[in-house]
Design goal:
three-stranded antiparallel beta sheet, Hjc, globular, five-stranded mixed beta sheet, alpha+beta, Trna Endonuclease, Chain: A, domain 1
């Protein structure tokens, strides 16, 4: 059975290659370490990205705190910029820093579309190019 986000991950990997970044999907199981890994790892020799991918047809997503902790730990060890890549229906990819997320009472994270549009970055910004589109 294919995970719901697999297609989104493949699409984002393809987009990163088009931006001259080597990119790959990380193993879902965390590989030999059994630690949470980001969904995508990418780099171009100057900029390194670790991306947790989320897709939704709604206007809000929730993210398990363990995923964010794993993203931050991996990013620090690897020397990558950690991002949450979010694809809301009918919108381009939006990238946020873990610091842009809001903690819920259950100590997980929540991201609403309006916050994503306000704080998010586009693909051009995270790949070191000028911003070419406005998110709103």
């Amino acid at each position: 059975m294919v995970r719901d986000g697999s297609r989104g991950e493949r699409d984002l990997v393809k987009l990163l290659w088009e931006k001259d970044f080597a990119a790959m999907r990380a193993p879902a199981s965390g590989g030999a370490t059994k630690k949470p890994l980001p969904d995508i790892i990418a780099g171009n020799g100057e900029i390194y990205l670790a991306i947790e991918v989320k897709m939704t047809s709604g206007e809000r997503i929730y993210i398990d705190s363990g995923k964010i902790k794993g993203l931050l730990e991996f990013s620090e060890m690897f020397g990558a910029e950690p991002y949450i890549g979010v694809k809301f229906r009918y919108r381009d990819w939006i990238f946020l820093s873990p610091a842009d997320l809001e903690m819920t009472p259950s100590e997980n994270y929540r991201l609403d579309l309006d916050i994503a549009l306000e704080r998010g970055r586009d693909i051009h910004e995270i790949t070191g190019r000028e911003r070419q589109t406005r998110l709103r």
